[in-house]
Amino acid sequence: MTTRARRRRSTPRRPARRPRGQAARRRAREQAFTRFALAALVLASVVTVAREHPVATVTLGILATATATATLVFLARTGRLHLPGSPGPRQDVTHTLVAYHRMTGTQFEYAVADLARQDPAVRSATVSGGANDRGLDVLVVLRDGRRIAVQCKRYAESNRVGAPAIYTANGTYRAYHRCDHAVIVTTSRFTRDAELANASLPEPLRLIDGRGLARWIGGGCPPWG
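Given the sequence above, the corresponding structure tokens read:
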């Protein structure tokens, strides 16, 4: 018998390794079983407490549900959370005027709210647009307490904002929305009649056309600055 043959016989064979896929599936099954056991234990504890203290359990459940609902509504209205089914998701877009032109009207409202939040003087910017918004698309609240009603007009360059928008915003931002100032932001321009109507007001609105919006996007002064 040769020396090489003796070495082969004397060398112990290594146990065959399990395929990585089988080991991963086994760990996944163990983790799933552990989670199921914990969930069953928690459920059993809740059922036991509910039987012993039914009134307290119902009261706590109602309070927890109300708190969770109020929190979700607050986050959604401040633009920090998008609930399924709510109009127009708030999107992270490139801040250029061209990108704003490509948005839908609702997306434009969320983009303006996002732009407003970049100002350190802004406490909150809430999208409030809808079928009966009464001239208010975004409500901006400054840290000094002032409330700004912002109306958003995502129009094509050929479609200018007319005088009726001025009258609508001026007639509702104080009496109905209880705001201190009103702003109309558009990707287009304002007609001559709209500019004259605004100039004739005792407290003119702040009109931001496409050029003004581009300056604001590029780091310029916000309408309430």
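Strands lie at 122-127, 138-142, 147-153, 181-186, 206-208. Try to locate this feature in the token string yourself.
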